[in-house]
Amino acid sequence: MSHGDTIPLHPSSQSDIDEIESLINAAPSATVLPARPPSPPRASIPVSSSPAPPPFLPAKPATAGAPPLPPPSLGVNVASAAAAVPPGGRLQGGIGADGFGSAPNTLTEPVWDTVKRDLSRIVSNLKLVVFPNPFREDPGKALRDWDLWGPFFFIIFLGLTLSWSASVKKSEVFAVAFAVLAAGAIILTVNVLLLGGHIIFFQSLSLLGYCLFPLDIGALICMLKNNVIIKIVVVTITLAWSSWAAYPFMSAAVNPRRKALALYPVFLMYVSVGFLIIAID
Amino acid sequence: MDRIQNTEENYANPKTCFFHVIFKAAALAFYVLSALFFDSFVIIFVVTVLLAALDFWVVKNVSGRILVGLRWWNEINEQGESVWKFECLDQESLARMNKKDSWLFWWTLYLTAVAWVFLGIFSLIRFQADYLLVVGVCLSLSVANIVGFTKCRKDARKQIQQFASQTIASRFSSTLQSAFSVV
């Protein structure tokens, strides 16, 4: 074989050969060469602090958009809030399915990171929905990051508070409160959809759940102070607060001529919960 | 290579499998056994639903990723429409997933839903509407996870097929090109 016959190498092969040569030359002080090429990213969970749900594998994301219609009915918060439950946190390093190189205590870390992220999302959603915020952008887009964990906790808390305040029939009170609130939220959402409004099912459930927060506070105060006058005052204030919180989202979702039709049932539901709070002693 | 063969005979992620199963079992056990110890419906409801919610979260965020390499979630895009996103590992990693892990994952998922259906039928027969509420909530959580992961798996298979056909097509065309260039 003469020199004239040598085939020019492919550019990447040339760089590989250069790499290997340099490693061989540096061998006495270098680390051991890998016996095989580095493994592709496996079930490693990349860490990220971004609020948006990140792709599972940064190197090879495989997302698919489903039709934009409302999904099958769901329950808790989950993520979806719930719903659809919140995307999990991530952790750097291989929690691979291969069995070697897995750190024994990394299972606790992603849980804690995810929990922190979910809690901060609940708090931020709460601030967005319930508290006066002059810098709030378009209300329809505000609850983009919906989750159902917040509403879940608020409904359970309200049921527990009412049940605790009741002197008789505690179980019935809890069951009725939970069922009325859950079914009420679903029916109100269906009402908006039937009125031709543009709202997403879980976003609306999430919103109505978060707007229960003032009534939670009202129920707590009423549990601590059993005076009827104070109860009426507190419930009226918190009721107004809840309705005020729900108003922008609901009214933005429907045709302006049908605003009252969409808002009246919401107000009715909160009024009935308010009466439940006052009546329990 | 020996190490890989050894670990394939056991569960590759025993801790995750444990957590995957424990909350489901605890919710079912608490619901069934609590009638013997507690008289209060409220405690039964809150604890069972809490355990079921924890199980939902663990399956969706932790064991789904680690045991079968799938993940699903919902996003709202710029136009304000809701989009369901499904994500899966690449084919090589999926093929390397432990068979026992994924067997456990899918079977416990289906069995819990079936168990809740049976408990629901029992409470229906006894005309206990409030216990039916508990069963309803837990069942909807299990069904949500089942539907989400099944859709995710179908999506993963479709993508693998697409990827395979693309690879074949590109290889075929590059072979053709090299054949013609030699000529």
Automatic annotation (TrEMBL), chain A:
<keyword id="KW-0812">Transmembrane</keyword>
<feature type="transmembrane region" description="Helical">
    <location>
        <begin position="173"/>
        <end position="194"/>
    </location>
</feature>
<dbReference type="GO" id="GO:0005802">
    <property type="term" value="C:trans-Golgi network"/>
</dbReference>
<comment type="similarity">
    <text>Belongs to the YIP1 family.</text>
</comment>
<feature type="domain" description="Yip1">
    <location>
        <begin position="142"/>
        <end position="275"/>
    </location>
</feature>
<feature type="transmembrane region" description="Helical">
    <location>
        <begin position="228"/>
        <end position="249"/>
    </location>
</feature>
<feature type="region of interest" description="Disordered">
    <location>
        <begin position="28"/>
        <end position="68"/>
    </location>
</feature>
<dbReference type="Pfam" id="PF04893">
    <property type="entry name" value="Yip1"/>
</dbReference>
<feature type="transmembrane region" description="Helical">
    <location>
        <begin position="261"/>
        <end position="280"/>
    </location>
</feature>
<dbReference type="InterPro" id="IPR006977">
    <property type="entry name" value="Yip1_dom"/>
</dbReference>
<feature type="transmembrane region" description="Helical">
    <location>
        <begin position="148"/>
        <end position="166"/>
    </location>
</feature>
<dbReference type="GO" id="GO:0006888">
    <property type="term" value="P:endoplasmic reticulum to Golgi vesicle-mediated transport"/>
</dbReference>
<dbReference type="GO" id="GO:0000139">
    <property type="term" value="C:Golgi membrane"/>
</dbReference>
<protein>
    <recommendedName>
        <fullName>Protein YIP</fullName>
    </recommendedName>
</protein>
<keyword id="KW-1133">Transmembrane helix</keyword>
<dbReference type="InterPro" id="IPR045231">
    <property type="entry name" value="Yip1/4-like"/>
</dbReference>
<feature type="transmembrane region" description="Helical">
    <location>
        <begin position="200"/>
        <end position="221"/>
    </location>
</feature>
<keyword id="KW-0472">Membrane</keyword>
From TrEMBL, chain B:
<comment type="function">
    <text>Golgi membrane protein involved in vesicular trafficking.</text>
</comment>
<keyword id="KW-0812">Transmembrane</keyword>
<dbReference type="Pfam" id="PF05832">
    <property type="entry name" value="DUF846"/>
</dbReference>
<feature type="transmembrane region" description="Helical">
    <location>
        <begin position="28"/>
        <end position="58"/>
    </location>
</feature>
<protein>
    <recommendedName>
        <fullName>Golgi apparatus membrane protein TVP23</fullName>
    </recommendedName>
</protein>
<dbReference type="GO" id="GO:0000139">
    <property type="term" value="C:Golgi membrane"/>
</dbReference>
<dbReference type="GO" id="GO:0016192">
    <property type="term" value="P:vesicle-mediated transport"/>
</dbReference>
<dbReference type="GO" id="GO:0009306">
    <property type="term" value="P:protein secretion"/>
</dbReference>
<dbReference type="InterPro" id="IPR008564">
    <property type="entry name" value="TVP23-like"/>
</dbReference>
<keyword id="KW-1133">Transmembrane helix</keyword>
<comment type="similarity">
    <text>Belongs to the TVP23 family.</text>
</comment>
<feature type="transmembrane region" description="Helical">
    <location>
        <begin position="103"/>
        <end position="125"/>
    </location>
</feature>
<keyword id="KW-0333">Golgi apparatus</keyword>
<keyword id="KW-0472">Membrane</keyword>
<feature type="transmembrane region" description="Helical">
    <location>
        <begin position="131"/>
        <end position="150"/>
    </location>
</feature>
